[in-house]
Amino acid sequence: MSTTRTQVAIMGAGPSGLLLGQLLHKAGIDAVIVDRVSGDYVLGRIRAGILEQVCIDLMDEAGVGERMHQEGLIHHGIEMLFDGQRHRVDLHKWSGGQQVMVYGQTEVTRDVMAARAAAGLTTIYEAKNTAVHDFDTARPYVTYEKDGVKHRIDCDFIAGCDGFHGVCRASAPRSAIKEYEKVYPFGWLGLMSDTPPVNDELIYVNSPRGFALCSQRSRTRSRYYLQVPLTHHVEDWSDDAFWQELKLRLDEKGRADLVTGPSLEKSIAPLRSFVTEPMRFGRMFLAGDAAHIVPPTGAKGLNLAATDVKYLFDALREYYQDKSEAGIDGYSQKCLGRVWRAERFSWWFTQLMHRFPDDGEIVAKFQHAELEYLMYSEAGQRTIAENYVGLPLDFASQRLM
Ligand code: FAS
Ligand code: PHB
Protein backbone atom coordinates (compact mmCIF):
# COMPACT_ATOMS: atom_id res chain seq x y z
CA MET A 1 0.00 0.00 0.00
CA SER A 2 1.48 3.36 -1.01
CA THR A 3 0.73 6.11 1.54
CA THR A 4 0.77 9.85 0.90
CA ARG A 5 -0.49 12.83 2.88
CA THR A 6 -2.51 15.95 2.09
CA GLN A 7 -4.51 18.49 4.08
CA VAL A 8 -7.88 17.94 2.35
CA ALA A 9 -8.78 14.75 0.47
CA ILE A 10 -11.57 15.56 -2.01
CA MET A 11 -13.69 12.64 -3.23
CA GLY A 12 -15.20 13.51 -6.62
CA ALA A 13 -13.95 15.59 -9.56
CA GLY A 14 -17.27 17.10 -10.64
CA PRO A 15 -17.86 20.84 -10.29
CA SER A 16 -18.01 20.67 -6.47
CA GLY A 17 -14.70 18.85 -6.03
CA LEU A 18 -12.88 20.78 -8.73
CA LEU A 19 -14.03 24.20 -7.52
CA LEU A 20 -13.14 23.34 -3.91
CA GLY A 21 -9.72 22.09 -5.01
CA GLN A 22 -9.07 25.29 -6.95
CA LEU A 23 -10.09 27.57 -4.08
CA LEU A 24 -7.96 25.61 -1.58
CA HIS A 25 -4.98 25.75 -3.92
CA LYS A 26 -5.28 29.53 -4.26
CA ALA A 27 -5.31 29.77 -0.44
CA GLY A 28 -2.18 27.61 -0.17
CA ILE A 29 -4.05 24.62 1.26
CA ASP A 30 -3.01 21.26 -0.17
CA ALA A 31 -5.73 19.03 -1.60
CA VAL A 32 -5.87 15.85 -3.69
CA ILE A 33 -8.92 14.94 -5.76
CA VAL A 34 -9.93 11.31 -6.39
CA ASP A 35 -12.60 10.27 -8.91
CA ARG A 36 -13.71 6.87 -10.06
CA VAL A 37 -14.16 7.86 -13.72
CA SER A 38 -11.98 9.60 -16.30
CA GLY A 39 -11.84 13.33 -16.87
CA ASP A 40 -13.31 12.81 -20.35
CA TYR A 41 -16.25 10.96 -18.81
CA VAL A 42 -16.91 13.87 -16.44
CA LEU A 43 -16.79 16.31 -19.36
CA GLY A 44 -19.13 14.10 -21.38
CA ARG A 45 -21.97 14.41 -18.85
CA ILE A 46 -24.41 17.08 -20.08
CA ARG A 47 -26.03 18.76 -17.10
CA ALA A 48 -26.70 22.28 -15.87
CA GLY A 49 -26.91 25.39 -17.99
CA ILE A 50 -27.76 28.33 -15.73
CA LEU A 51 -25.33 30.06 -13.32
CA GLU A 52 -26.59 32.24 -10.47
CA GLN A 53 -24.50 35.21 -9.31
CA VAL A 54 -23.08 33.18 -6.39
CA CYS A 55 -21.68 30.66 -8.88
CA ILE A 56 -20.32 33.38 -11.17
CA ASP A 57 -18.63 35.04 -8.19
CA LEU A 58 -17.17 31.71 -7.08
CA MET A 59 -15.66 31.10 -10.51
CA ASP A 60 -14.07 34.55 -10.27
CA GLU A 61 -12.82 33.89 -6.73
CA ALA A 62 -11.31 30.62 -7.98
CA GLY A 63 -9.57 32.57 -10.74
CA VAL A 64 -11.26 30.62 -13.55
CA GLY A 65 -13.93 33.07 -14.72
CA GLU A 66 -12.26 34.60 -17.78
CA ARG A 67 -13.85 32.43 -20.51
CA MET A 68 -17.16 32.41 -18.63
CA HIS A 69 -17.35 36.21 -18.87
CA GLN A 70 -16.31 36.11 -22.52
CA GLU A 71 -18.75 33.39 -23.63
CA GLY A 72 -21.50 33.33 -20.99
CA LEU A 73 -24.82 34.95 -21.94
CA ILE A 74 -26.45 37.26 -19.39
CA HIS A 75 -30.21 36.79 -19.16
CA HIS A 76 -32.58 39.25 -17.50
CA GLY A 77 -35.78 37.27 -17.89
CA ILE A 78 -37.55 33.97 -18.60
CA GLU A 79 -40.75 33.23 -20.51
CA MET A 80 -43.61 31.19 -19.01
CA LEU A 81 -45.80 29.57 -21.68
CA PHE A 82 -49.25 28.19 -20.80
CA ASP A 83 -52.61 28.18 -22.58
CA GLY A 84 -50.76 29.04 -25.78
CA GLN A 85 -49.70 32.40 -24.30
CA ARG A 86 -46.22 33.58 -23.30
CA HIS A 87 -45.65 35.72 -20.25
CA ARG A 88 -42.20 37.22 -19.60
CA VAL A 89 -40.95 37.32 -16.02
CA ASP A 90 -38.54 40.25 -15.76
CA LEU A 91 -36.00 38.68 -13.39
CA HIS A 92 -33.84 41.81 -13.38
CA LYS A 93 -36.68 44.16 -12.41
CA TRP A 94 -38.36 41.92 -9.83
CA SER A 95 -35.17 40.69 -8.15
CA GLY A 96 -33.79 44.15 -7.53
CA GLY A 97 -31.37 44.19 -10.45
CA GLN A 98 -30.04 40.65 -10.46
CA GLN A 99 -29.53 38.33 -13.44
CA VAL A 100 -28.48 34.81 -14.40
CA MET A 101 -25.92 33.56 -16.92
CA VAL A 102 -26.21 30.85 -19.54
CA TYR A 103 -22.93 28.91 -19.33
CA GLY A 104 -22.97 25.11 -19.36
CA GLN A 105 -21.72 23.00 -16.45
CA THR A 106 -19.50 21.24 -18.95
CA GLU A 107 -17.72 24.55 -19.59
CA VAL A 108 -17.44 25.27 -15.85
CA THR A 109 -15.85 21.85 -15.41
CA ARG A 110 -13.55 22.34 -18.39
CA ASP A 111 -12.32 25.70 -17.08
CA VAL A 112 -11.51 24.38 -13.60
CA MET A 113 -9.93 21.19 -14.96
CA ALA A 114 -7.65 23.29 -17.19
CA ALA A 115 -6.61 25.52 -14.28
CA ARG A 116 -5.90 22.47 -12.11
CA ALA A 117 -3.78 20.83 -14.79
CA ALA A 118 -1.91 24.10 -15.47
CA ALA A 119 -1.04 24.33 -11.77
CA GLY A 120 0.24 20.73 -11.85
CA LEU A 121 -2.19 19.65 -9.13
CA THR A 122 -3.00 16.01 -8.45
CA THR A 123 -6.32 14.60 -9.67
CA ILE A 124 -6.52 10.82 -9.56
CA TYR A 125 -9.02 9.62 -12.17
CA GLU A 126 -10.35 6.09 -12.72
CA ALA A 127 -9.67 5.19 -9.10
CA LYS A 128 -11.26 1.90 -8.07
CA ASN A 129 -12.70 0.77 -4.73
CA THR A 130 -12.54 4.22 -3.21
CA ALA A 131 -13.33 4.34 0.51
CA VAL A 132 -13.26 6.80 3.40
CA HIS A 133 -11.96 5.92 6.87
CA ASP A 134 -11.74 7.24 10.46
CA PHE A 135 -13.50 10.50 9.66
CA ASP A 136 -14.82 10.43 13.24
CA THR A 137 -11.22 10.84 14.44
CA ALA A 138 -8.58 13.56 13.97
CA ARG A 139 -6.71 11.31 11.53
CA PRO A 140 -9.07 10.44 8.66
CA TYR A 141 -7.84 8.87 5.46
CA VAL A 142 -9.10 7.65 2.09
CA THR A 143 -8.06 4.57 0.14
CA TYR A 144 -8.37 3.57 -3.51
CA GLU A 145 -6.85 1.26 -6.05
CA LYS A 146 -5.20 2.36 -9.27
CA ASP A 147 -3.56 0.08 -11.84
CA GLY A 148 -3.71 -2.79 -9.35
CA VAL A 149 -1.92 -0.86 -6.59
CA LYS A 150 -3.65 0.02 -3.29
CA HIS A 151 -3.19 3.62 -2.16
CA ARG A 152 -3.86 5.47 1.10
CA ILE A 153 -4.07 9.25 1.50
CA ASP A 154 -3.82 10.52 5.08
CA CYS A 155 -5.48 13.89 5.56
CA ASP A 156 -6.94 16.40 8.03
CA PHE A 157 -10.36 16.52 6.33
CA ILE A 158 -12.38 14.63 3.71
CA ALA A 159 -14.61 16.62 1.32
CA GLY A 160 -17.41 14.36 0.07
CA CYS A 161 -18.01 15.83 -3.39
CA ASP A 162 -18.84 12.46 -4.94
CA GLY A 163 -22.42 13.06 -6.00
CA PHE A 164 -25.67 11.25 -5.28
CA HIS A 165 -24.25 7.78 -5.91
CA GLY A 166 -20.96 8.39 -4.13
CA VAL A 167 -19.28 6.55 -1.27
CA CYS A 168 -19.07 9.41 1.27
CA ARG A 169 -22.72 9.83 2.28
CA ALA A 170 -23.11 6.05 2.08
CA SER A 171 -20.27 5.73 4.65
CA ALA A 172 -21.89 8.00 7.23
CA PRO A 173 -23.22 6.06 10.23
CA ARG A 174 -26.96 5.43 9.72
CA SER A 175 -27.63 6.46 13.30
CA ALA A 176 -26.14 9.90 12.61
CA ILE A 177 -27.87 10.69 9.32
CA LYS A 178 -31.42 11.53 8.22
CA GLU A 179 -32.33 11.46 4.53
CA TYR A 180 -35.41 13.14 3.05
CA GLU A 181 -36.54 12.06 -0.42
CA LYS A 182 -39.35 12.65 -2.90
CA VAL A 183 -39.16 10.87 -6.29
CA TYR A 184 -41.20 12.38 -9.14
CA PRO A 185 -43.30 10.13 -11.42
CA PHE A 186 -41.64 11.34 -14.62
CA GLY A 187 -38.24 12.19 -16.10
CA TRP A 188 -36.71 14.83 -18.35
CA LEU A 189 -35.68 13.79 -21.85
CA GLY A 190 -32.92 16.24 -22.80
CA LEU A 191 -31.58 16.95 -26.29
CA MET A 192 -28.60 19.10 -27.26
CA SER A 193 -28.27 20.40 -30.83
CA ASP A 194 -26.10 22.82 -32.76
CA THR A 195 -29.11 24.90 -33.77
CA PRO A 196 -29.91 28.52 -32.86
CA PRO A 197 -32.17 28.77 -29.77
CA VAL A 198 -35.88 29.10 -30.48
CA ASN A 199 -35.98 32.23 -28.29
CA ASP A 200 -33.50 34.73 -26.82
CA GLU A 201 -34.52 33.74 -23.28
CA LEU A 202 -35.52 30.40 -21.75
CA ILE A 203 -39.12 29.26 -22.21
CA TYR A 204 -40.76 27.13 -19.46
CA VAL A 205 -43.85 25.38 -20.85
CA ASN A 206 -46.89 23.99 -19.01
CA SER A 207 -48.85 22.22 -21.76
CA PRO A 208 -51.64 19.60 -21.63
CA ARG A 209 -49.08 17.17 -23.11
CA GLY A 210 -46.59 17.87 -20.34
CA PHE A 211 -43.71 20.15 -19.39
CA ALA A 212 -41.12 21.38 -21.88
CA LEU A 213 -38.13 23.68 -21.50
CA CYS A 214 -36.35 25.58 -24.25
CA SER A 215 -32.85 26.40 -23.02
CA GLN A 216 -29.52 27.05 -24.65
CA ARG A 217 -25.73 26.92 -24.31
CA SER A 218 -24.84 29.71 -26.78
CA ARG A 219 -26.39 31.58 -29.73
CA THR A 220 -25.73 28.52 -31.88
CA ARG A 221 -26.26 25.64 -29.47
CA SER A 222 -29.65 24.74 -27.93
CA ARG A 223 -30.74 22.52 -25.06
CA TYR A 224 -34.33 21.27 -24.92
CA TYR A 225 -36.19 19.12 -22.40
CA LEU A 226 -39.48 17.20 -22.51
CA GLN A 227 -41.27 15.66 -19.53
CA VAL A 228 -41.58 11.93 -20.29
CA PRO A 229 -43.02 8.95 -18.35
CA LEU A 230 -40.55 6.94 -16.26
CA THR A 231 -41.33 3.95 -18.48
CA HIS A 232 -39.68 5.63 -21.49
CA HIS A 233 -36.13 4.91 -22.61
CA VAL A 234 -33.97 7.27 -24.64
CA GLU A 235 -33.80 4.75 -27.48
CA ASP A 236 -37.61 5.09 -27.74
CA TRP A 237 -37.09 8.66 -28.93
CA SER A 238 -35.79 9.43 -32.40
CA ASP A 239 -34.69 13.01 -33.06
CA ASP A 240 -37.74 13.50 -35.28
CA ALA A 241 -40.06 12.23 -32.55
CA PHE A 242 -38.46 14.66 -30.10
CA TRP A 243 -38.86 17.66 -32.40
CA GLN A 244 -42.46 16.74 -33.24
CA GLU A 245 -43.40 16.45 -29.57
CA LEU A 246 -41.64 19.70 -28.69
CA LYS A 247 -43.58 21.50 -31.43
CA LEU A 248 -46.84 20.11 -30.04
CA ARG A 249 -46.01 21.60 -26.64
CA LEU A 250 -44.93 25.01 -28.01
CA ASP A 251 -47.07 27.92 -29.21
CA GLU A 252 -47.51 28.98 -32.85
CA LYS A 253 -44.52 31.34 -32.70
CA GLY A 254 -42.35 28.61 -31.22
CA ARG A 255 -43.37 26.14 -33.90
CA ALA A 256 -42.54 28.72 -36.58
CA ASP A 257 -39.20 29.75 -35.02
CA LEU A 258 -37.90 26.31 -33.97
CA VAL A 259 -34.80 25.23 -35.90
CA THR A 260 -34.35 21.48 -35.67
CA GLY A 261 -31.24 19.45 -36.32
CA PRO A 262 -29.40 16.26 -35.33
CA SER A 263 -28.94 15.62 -31.61
CA LEU A 264 -25.41 15.90 -30.21
CA GLU A 265 -26.61 14.27 -27.00
CA LYS A 266 -29.90 12.81 -25.82
CA SER A 267 -30.60 11.39 -22.36
CA ILE A 268 -33.33 10.92 -19.76
CA ALA A 269 -32.72 12.23 -16.22
CA PRO A 270 -34.89 11.14 -13.30
CA LEU A 271 -36.24 13.85 -10.99
CA ARG A 272 -36.02 13.76 -7.25
CA SER A 273 -35.88 16.03 -4.21
CA PHE A 274 -33.34 14.73 -1.72
CA VAL A 275 -31.66 16.20 1.35
CA THR A 276 -29.20 14.73 3.84
CA GLU A 277 -29.05 16.07 7.39
CA PRO A 278 -26.51 16.85 8.68
CA MET A 279 -23.89 17.55 5.98
CA ARG A 280 -20.94 17.01 8.33
CA PHE A 281 -19.74 13.82 10.01
CA GLY A 282 -16.70 14.51 12.13
CA ARG A 283 -13.95 15.44 9.72
CA MET A 284 -15.97 14.53 6.60
CA PHE A 285 -18.08 17.22 4.93
CA LEU A 286 -20.65 16.56 2.19
CA ALA A 287 -21.05 19.15 -0.58
CA GLY A 288 -23.18 19.34 -3.73
CA ASP A 289 -25.10 16.36 -5.03
CA ALA A 290 -23.48 14.15 -2.37
CA ALA A 291 -25.74 15.95 0.11
CA HIS A 292 -28.78 17.05 -1.87
CA ILE A 293 -30.59 16.73 -5.18
CA VAL A 294 -33.21 19.06 -6.65
CA PRO A 295 -35.50 18.52 -9.65
CA PRO A 296 -33.73 20.63 -12.35
CA THR A 297 -36.84 22.78 -12.96
CA GLY A 298 -35.46 25.65 -10.91
CA ALA A 299 -31.88 25.34 -12.27
CA LYS A 300 -30.58 25.02 -8.70
CA GLY A 301 -28.42 21.87 -8.62
CA LEU A 302 -25.11 23.27 -9.74
CA ASN A 303 -25.72 26.58 -7.98
CA LEU A 304 -26.45 24.89 -4.65
CA ALA A 305 -23.24 22.90 -5.08
CA ALA A 306 -21.33 26.15 -5.63
CA THR A 307 -22.73 27.63 -2.42
CA ASP A 308 -21.80 24.55 -0.38
CA VAL A 309 -18.27 24.78 -1.79
CA LYS A 310 -17.99 28.47 -0.91
CA TYR A 311 -19.12 27.83 2.68
CA LEU A 312 -16.81 24.80 3.03
CA PHE A 313 -13.84 26.64 1.57
CA ASP A 314 -14.33 29.61 3.92
CA ALA A 315 -14.59 27.21 6.87
CA LEU A 316 -11.42 25.30 5.96
CA ARG A 317 -9.48 28.47 5.27
CA GLU A 318 -10.57 29.80 8.71
CA TYR A 319 -9.38 26.54 10.30
CA TYR A 320 -5.93 26.67 8.74
CA GLN A 321 -5.33 30.42 8.74
CA ASP A 322 -7.18 31.62 11.87
CA LYS A 323 -6.95 28.36 13.83
CA SER A 324 -10.70 28.60 14.38
CA GLU A 325 -13.22 25.73 14.14
CA ALA A 326 -16.24 28.06 14.11
CA GLY A 327 -16.69 27.74 10.36
CA ILE A 328 -16.49 23.97 10.21
CA ASP A 329 -18.79 23.67 13.23
CA GLY A 330 -21.36 25.94 11.53
CA TYR A 331 -21.01 24.50 8.01
CA SER A 332 -23.91 22.07 7.98
CA GLN A 333 -26.50 24.42 9.44
CA LYS A 334 -25.39 27.26 7.17
CA CYS A 335 -25.72 25.09 4.05
CA LEU A 336 -29.02 23.48 5.01
CA GLY A 337 -30.82 26.79 5.55
CA ARG A 338 -30.12 27.62 1.93
CA VAL A 339 -30.58 24.07 0.65
CA TRP A 340 -34.15 23.82 1.99
CA ARG A 341 -35.10 27.17 0.41
CA ALA A 342 -33.85 25.96 -2.99
CA GLU A 343 -35.48 22.54 -2.49
CA ARG A 344 -38.80 24.20 -1.72
CA PHE A 345 -38.65 26.45 -4.83
CA SER A 346 -37.58 23.58 -7.09
CA TRP A 347 -40.41 21.38 -5.78
CA TRP A 348 -42.95 24.20 -6.08
CA PHE A 349 -41.86 25.10 -9.65
CA THR A 350 -41.97 21.41 -10.62
CA GLN A 351 -45.50 21.00 -9.20
CA LEU A 352 -46.60 24.12 -11.05
CA MET A 353 -45.24 23.23 -14.49
CA HIS A 354 -45.56 19.43 -14.86
CA ARG A 355 -48.58 17.17 -15.43
CA PHE A 356 -48.62 14.47 -12.72
CA PRO A 357 -50.09 11.15 -13.91
CA ASP A 358 -52.40 10.75 -10.89
CA ASP A 359 -53.69 14.34 -10.88
CA GLY A 360 -57.14 14.88 -12.32
CA GLU A 361 -58.19 17.72 -14.60
CA ILE A 362 -58.86 19.79 -11.53
CA VAL A 363 -55.13 20.09 -10.76
CA ALA A 364 -54.53 21.44 -14.27
CA LYS A 365 -57.15 24.07 -13.42
CA PHE A 366 -55.35 24.85 -10.15
CA GLN A 367 -52.07 25.22 -12.07
CA HIS A 368 -53.68 27.52 -14.61
CA ALA A 369 -55.21 29.67 -11.88
CA GLU A 370 -51.88 29.89 -10.05
CA LEU A 371 -49.98 30.75 -13.23
CA GLU A 372 -52.48 33.49 -14.05
CA TYR A 373 -52.16 34.90 -10.52
CA LEU A 374 -48.37 34.81 -10.71
CA MET A 375 -48.21 36.48 -14.11
CA TYR A 376 -50.62 39.29 -13.26
CA SER A 377 -49.41 40.01 -9.74
CA GLU A 378 -46.35 42.01 -8.68
CA ALA A 379 -45.94 39.71 -5.70
CA GLY A 380 -46.14 36.72 -8.00
CA GLN A 381 -43.48 38.05 -10.36
CA ARG A 382 -41.27 38.94 -7.43
CA THR A 383 -41.49 35.53 -5.80
CA ILE A 384 -40.48 33.78 -9.02
CA ALA A 385 -37.68 36.25 -9.73
CA GLU A 386 -36.19 36.29 -6.21
CA ASN A 387 -36.07 32.50 -6.05
CA TYR A 388 -34.95 31.91 -9.63
CA VAL A 389 -31.92 34.24 -9.47
CA GLY A 390 -30.95 32.66 -6.14
CA LEU A 391 -30.47 33.90 -2.60
CA PRO A 392 -27.48 36.05 -1.62
CA LEU A 393 -24.65 34.22 0.12
CA ASP A 394 -25.42 35.93 3.44
CA PHE A 395 -29.17 35.36 3.19
CA ALA A 396 -29.18 33.47 6.50
CA SER A 397 -28.34 36.72 8.32
CA GLN A 398 -31.10 38.48 6.35
CA ARG A 399 -33.81 36.13 7.57
CA LEU A 400 -36.97 37.99 8.57
CA MET A 401 -37.44 36.17 11.84
P1 FAS B 1 -21.44 15.39 -9.64
O1 FAS B 1 -22.38 14.22 -9.59
O2 FAS B 1 -21.43 16.29 -10.82
O3 FAS B 1 -19.92 14.87 -9.48
C1 FAS B 1 -19.63 13.85 -8.57
C2 FAS B 1 -18.34 13.19 -9.03
O4 FAS B 1 -18.00 12.19 -8.06
C3 FAS B 1 -18.47 12.48 -10.36
O5 FAS B 1 -17.44 12.87 -11.24
C4 FAS B 1 -18.37 10.99 -10.02
O6 FAS B 1 -17.68 10.24 -11.00
C5 FAS B 1 -17.59 11.02 -8.73
N1 FAS B 1 -17.85 9.85 -7.88
C6 FAS B 1 -19.03 9.21 -7.68
N2 FAS B 1 -18.86 8.17 -6.83
C7 FAS B 1 -17.53 8.15 -6.50
C8 FAS B 1 -16.73 7.33 -5.68
N3 FAS B 1 -17.27 6.30 -5.00
N4 FAS B 1 -15.42 7.61 -5.57
C9 FAS B 1 -14.87 8.65 -6.24
N5 FAS B 1 -15.58 9.48 -7.04
C10 FAS B 1 -16.89 9.22 -7.17
N6 FAS B 1 -28.52 20.95 -12.39
C11 FAS B 1 -28.98 22.11 -12.91
O7 FAS B 1 -28.84 23.16 -12.27
N7 FAS B 1 -29.61 22.12 -14.16
C12 FAS B 1 -29.75 20.97 -14.90
O8 FAS B 1 -30.30 21.00 -15.98
C13 FAS B 1 -29.27 19.76 -14.39
N8 FAS B 1 -29.38 18.59 -15.12
C14 FAS B 1 -28.91 17.42 -14.56
C15 FAS B 1 -29.01 16.18 -15.26
C16 FAS B 1 -28.55 14.98 -14.68
C17 FAS B 1 -28.66 13.67 -15.44
C18 FAS B 1 -28.00 14.99 -13.39
C19 FAS B 1 -27.52 13.70 -12.74
C20 FAS B 1 -27.88 16.20 -12.71
C21 FAS B 1 -28.33 17.42 -13.28
N9 FAS B 1 -28.21 18.63 -12.62
C22 FAS B 1 -28.66 19.80 -13.11
C23 FAS B 1 -27.59 18.70 -11.34
C24 FAS B 1 -26.09 18.67 -11.57
O9 FAS B 1 -25.74 19.76 -12.38
C25 FAS B 1 -25.43 18.68 -10.22
O10 FAS B 1 -26.01 19.65 -9.36
C26 FAS B 1 -23.95 18.90 -10.29
O11 FAS B 1 -23.39 17.96 -11.16
C27 FAS B 1 -23.41 18.77 -8.88
O12 FAS B 1 -22.04 18.67 -8.98
P2 FAS B 1 -21.23 17.71 -7.96
O13 FAS B 1 -21.73 17.96 -6.58
O14 FAS B 1 -19.80 17.92 -8.28
O15 FAS B 1 -21.70 16.21 -8.31
C1 PHB C 1 -30.32 23.69 -18.90
O1 PHB C 1 -30.01 24.54 -19.77
O2 PHB C 1 -29.80 22.56 -18.84
C2 PHB C 1 -31.37 24.05 -17.88
C3 PHB C 1 -31.77 25.38 -17.77
C4 PHB C 1 -32.75 25.72 -16.83
C5 PHB C 1 -33.30 24.73 -16.04
C6 PHB C 1 -32.88 23.39 -16.14
C7 PHB C 1 -31.91 23.06 -17.07
O3 PHB C 1 -34.28 25.06 -15.14
CATH H-level name of the domain at 2-75 and 99-180 and 272-356... which superfamily? Answer: FAD/NAD(P)-binding domain
Number of helices, counting only DSSP H or I runs of 4 residues or more: 13
Largest beta-sheet details: 8 strands, mixed
| Global mean pLDDT | 97
CATH class of the domain at 2-75 and 99-180 and 272-356 equals Alpha Beta
Shape: globular
Tell me the Rg in angstroms. Answer: 21 Å
Report the portion of residues in β strands.
Answer: 25-35%
Name given to the CATH architecture of the domain at 2-75 and 99-180 and 272-356? 3-Layer(bba) Sandwich
Residue share in helix: 25-40%
Uncertain residue segments:
none
Number of strands: 21
Strand order of the largest sheet: 7-6-15-16-17-14-18-21
Distinct compounds present? arabino-flavin-adenine dinucleotide, P-hydroxybenzoic acid
SSE arrangement:
Elements: E1 2-5, E2 8-11, H1 15-26, E3 31-34, H2 39-44, E4 50-51, H3 53-61, H4 66-71, E5 73-75, E6 77-82, E7 85-90, H5 91-94, E8 100-102, H6 105-118, E9 123-124, E10 128-133, E11 141-146, E12 149-154, E13 157-160, H7 168-171, E14 178-193, E15 203-207, E16 210-216, E17 222-229, H8 239-249, H9 252-257, E18 263-277, E19 280-281, E20 284-286, E21 292-293, H10 301-322, H11 326-353, H12 361-375, H13 378-389
Parallel strand pairs: 1-12, 2-3, 2-13, 3-9, 6-15, 13-20
Antiparallel strand pairs: 4-8, 5-8, 6-7, 10-11, 11-12, 14-17, 14-18, 15-16, 16-17, 18-21, 19-20
Helix pairs in contact: 1-6, 1-10, 10-11
